[in-house]
Amino acid sequence: MIYSQYISILLTFLVLAILIPIIGRYIADVYQEKTTILDVLFYPVEAWIYKLIGTDSKKSMDWKEYTVALVLTNITFGIFAFLILTQQGGLPLNYFNSPDMSFRLAFHTSASYLTNTDFQHFNPVTQISMFSEMFAIMLLMFVSSATGLVVAVSLIRGIKNSNGKIGNFYIDFVRSITRILLPFSILTTFLLVFMGVPDTLTPYIILHPVTGGSSIMPLGLNAAHTSIELLGTNGGSYINGGNSNPLSDPSNATIFLETLMMLLFPFSLIFAYGEMIKKKSESFVLFIVTFGLLLFAVLSVVNIEMQGNVMLSTIPHLSMSSGNFVGKDTRFGVVYGSFAQTVSVYTNTGAQFVNIDTMLPGSQIFLLFGMFIQAVPGGIGTGFTYLLLYLLLSVFLGGLMVGRTPEYIGKKIGVKEIKYTSLALIVHPILIITPFVIALLFNPFGSVTYSPHNLTELLYEFTSEAANNGSSMTLNDNNAFYNIAGGIIMLLSRFIPIVATLAIAGSLSNKKSLPERGGSMRTDSITFALYLIGVIIILGALMFLPVIVIGPLRDYLRLSHYG
User: Which domain holds residue 136?
Assistant: First the structure.
């Protein structure tokens, strides 16, 4: 049984390796406006949308115009969703009589889904109507995923172009939805329905158990929600219990497909990058870095969970050979369940395949580290963006060490690019550690005792929100402090790095691409890949080691000492 789970992991990576070069090439064609098989279907639709919003499809923007368009578009959709959530009690398709959300909970929810976090402080069955699901929740999942994609593409154009332009936001945004997110979501929805995941406008059915009485089984748009949830690395399940609920994940076939869905676009974008800059060797280096770190994390978490909880080893007749099964679905097992959850966190999806609170402290350290660095492979678009930011910083540091002008693909990396890169990277620990310290000092929620495990829960809460991840441990977080603080954290951690990234793209796009010289640092070699891995790990450790020590590391050492 356990060996079959390892084989399933290997099969997942093999299928991924086959698909990502193909889909990567397709994504590159979409953003370079080359001919694709969906042109006949979507050209008329896109032309109508461009006419409706009044944009010129031939006009390219500089980074400031692009930023204003992106921010205003996101604000508009965020306010629209907020209004729906606060008025849903009087809107149609409210089969469970879900009340209007309070302003603080609606703020947290709309901020969460707008920023690709999808952190839920609510019960998805009883507190969200089907109308809100379709026109607030699912709408924002498409908006946030498309936003992540266009930011990554604009940075690629900044590296590639020398005319000061990085594209047209509205064209990129619309094509991200019509050519990439929507078609793949429809396809995977059909696959999930075929595999047994419900998708219907029927809200629920009444069950009559043999023991008597009756119970309600919610149905609704489960498959459609799950498709964009995982393909768009959104997270935020349609039903209680997350993706381990049999209604969302009824079989080994569905968890295999869903794990693949989370990995598909983050890795495909790496290959799209090589196609767009006409240098595939750069893609292979970034793939080696990303896949190598992800594989190390997966194997580490699986190994830790398979060792079991040593504090239970003294219980007579309790076998630890099957590993730490607490909080995991017996259908998927410890190995594949741990693998799926690690993939979920490292892709910044945040979908819950196992109960993270019951995972061992060593595993929680690895999950936190994935959210600290956000780039292996990270969320859709944003993960690749962070990977390029780490790369630019590595090139700059490497140039200083060897005494040469830092250059990347013929473009000099100067002070301006490094300032914005530093801003994008440093805002992440600030937005985690600041609220963490405030919570410890003032304890506004009155429920945290200062045990290592509870400190880990608190750290995980703010880390997940700052990383736009959405996974959670069992912290009682639906109160005013967490709703307001969490919403602010998610918005700042999303849009400050986005603006900084677009500024980098604009700066690079104004520079001429020079021919590579003999003394330039090669960024398409195994040596550079190892160097980049070192930079990522060291930066993550330097920024977050102190908070790791007082929480999960202390818990891990306590558990090890007990054993």
Answer: 33-274
